[in-house]
Amino acid sequence: LKHLPYFSRNEVAEHYDDSRRVWVSFRRGVYDVTEFSAVHPGGSRILMAAGGSLEPFWELYPVHQKSDVFHILEKYRIGNLNEDDVLETQESVDHFKGEPMRHPALIRRAEKPFNGETPPSLLIEKFHTPNDVFYVRNHLPVPQVDAKTYSLEIDGISLNEVSLSLQDIKKFPKVSISATIQCGGNRRTEMGKGKPVAGLGWTGGAIGNAKWTGARLVDVLRTAGFKPEAYKHPEKFHVKFDGLDTDQSGECYGASVPLSYLLDGNFDAILAYEMNDKPIPIDHGFPIRIVLPGIVGARSVKWLSRVSISDEESQSPWQQRDYKVFSPSVSLETVDFSAAPPIMETPVTSYICSHDDGDKVKKGPLKLQGYAFSGGGRRIIRVEISLDKGKSWNIAKISDTNDTNLENTRNWSWVLWEANINIQSSAEIWVKAVDSGYNQQPEDFKNIWNYRGLLATAYHKIYLDVLT
Ligand code: HEM
Ligand code: MTE
Ligand code: MO
Question: Which member of 9, 40, 77, 102 is catalytic?
Answer without folding.
Answer: 40
